[in-house]
Amino acid sequence: MQLKIALLGGDGIGPEVLAQSVKCLKAIEETFNHSFEYVEASVGAVAISNTGKPLPDATLKLCREADAILFGAIGSLEYDNNPDAQVRPEQGLLGLRKELGLFANIRPVKMFDSLIANSPLKEHIVRGTDLVIFRELTGGIYFGKKSISEDGTRASDVCEYTEDEIGRVTHLAFKAAKKRRKKLTLVDKANVLESSRLWRKTVSEIAKSYPDVELQTMFIDNAAVQMMMNPTQFDVILTDNMFGDILSDQGSVIIGSVGLLPSASIGRENAMFEPFHGSYPQAKGKNIANPVASILSTAMLLQHYGLNEEANAIVSAVNESFIKKVVTLDVLGSSKYGTDYVGDFISEHIVDPDENLNINDENIGLGKSTII
Predict the structure, then answer these.
(1) Catalytic pick from 164, 221, 352, 354?
(2) Is the Magnesium keyword given for this protein (predicted)?
(3) Which residues are paired to 263 by β-bridges?
């Protein structure tokens, strides 16, 4: 297969972890006889420095033309310390989501058996955790009308949804649930919010088209508790923009590191794949950032195009790095290996896998369940 892939390294550790993903894609090319074209572009704080815009026109044009986008990270201490700045790096990411119509964010949370010791939760709680969060990404309170009074003492953010916005991500979530364990949990606040009541009404109606999928509803406060107490009860979680943002953060706690969570942002015509973590500017250039979330996002890219064997090869190689403890500082307390070495190890094991590794023994991640 031939694919044109836009590389948006962004800020902080973004370019470093993205470089490891490219190593893995090149290993996939070599092993499976594919041809990928890579084109780089700027976004975020680095783009503001170069062009004055967090999302330059040339970057957006490239993303529209590419088959897929690999995104690094976005954010800078310069802007973190200046909350009143009118132009901000994160506007580049929000702009991409809106301009490309990336309405569904998909975040798998998988507990690898070899990493159970990395979780702050007890083994009997986290063992077997394998869920995926479908977060609506282009509506709700993040994109609603915002206002602040002239004296700065009153502010508002409008949370607004339409049936169409809810429906399109809901269908994706139900289709994913059909391929997994056939259970979908809608997380909302329908006891208080009108927008949540519309979510519940719309999702309940759509559920009639998927009779083999069990629909459960849960308020966000209870869902946050249940994810910490019994995460294995969940299969597919469907929720709005803000609640999905919150629950995704909790997912990183369950598996013990934000550096392990991949994600995909899907639209009707475009798709972007990115690690869940931020730009971690304090670690920039120190070769300590965990590249696994970025590499697993690359596996999601391959799976999106039906290259499931290739995606399995990446996940298998990542799991081998866990088993052999070739990991960065945030995983298992190891300080022996850096970003580049972990990327090299994983990419080399794609080309030359360990014959003693049976990925079915671990029932690992993306290879078990097609989540897109």
Answers:
(1) 221
(2) yes
(3) 274
- Token readout for 310 is 């290739």
**Same structural domain, 234 and 332:** no
- Residue 249 is among the residues annotated as catalytic for this protein: yes
pLDDT greater than 60 at residue 371: no
Q: What is the pLDDT of residues 302-316, one digit of tens each?
A: 999 999 999 999 999
Query: Helices 241-255 & 220-229, crossing angle to 10 degrees?
Result: 10
Is the pLDDT reported for residue 27 higher than 70?
Answer: yes
Token pair for 218: 């849960």
Q: In whole angstroms, what is the distance from residue 106 CA to residue 304 CA?
A: 11
Residue 210 confidence (pLDDT) above 90 = yes
Q: Is 340 labeled as catalytic in the residue annotation?
A: no
pLDDT in tens, 110-153: 999 999 999 999 999 999 999 999 999 999 999 999 999 999 99
CA gap 368, 45 in Å, rounded: 37
* Inside any domain, residue 114: no
CATH number of the domain within which 133 lies? 3.40.718.10
Active site residue 212: no
pLDDT at 367: 33
The most distant pair of C-alpha atoms in the chain lies apart, rounded to whole Å, by 67
Find residue 271's DSSP bridge partners: 266
Cα-Cα end-to-end distance for the chain: 19
**pLDDT tens digit sequence for 32-55:** 999 999 999 999 999 999 999 999
Among this protein's residues, is 330 annotated catalytic?
no
> Do 248 and 183 sit in the same domain of this protein?
yes
DSSP letters, 60-117, are HHHHHHSSEEEEEE---HHHHT-TT-SS-THHHHHHHHHHTT--EEEEEEE--GGGGG
The pTM for the full model equals 0.89
Q: Strand pairing partners for 272?
A: 69, 265
Q: Which one from 23, 110, 189, 284 is the annotated catalytic residue?
A: 189
Q: What is the pLDDT of residue 354?
A: 62
Two structure tokens written together for 212: 């083999």
Together in a domain, 273 and 352: yes
Average pLDDT, rounded, for the chain: 92
Q: Which of 4, 201, 249, 325 is catalytic?
A: 249
Active-site pick, 188, 235, 240, 245: 245
- Of 142, 161, 280, 337, which residue is the catalytic one? 142
137 and 245 belong to one structural domain? yes
Q: How many CB atoms lie within 10 A of CB 19?
A: 17
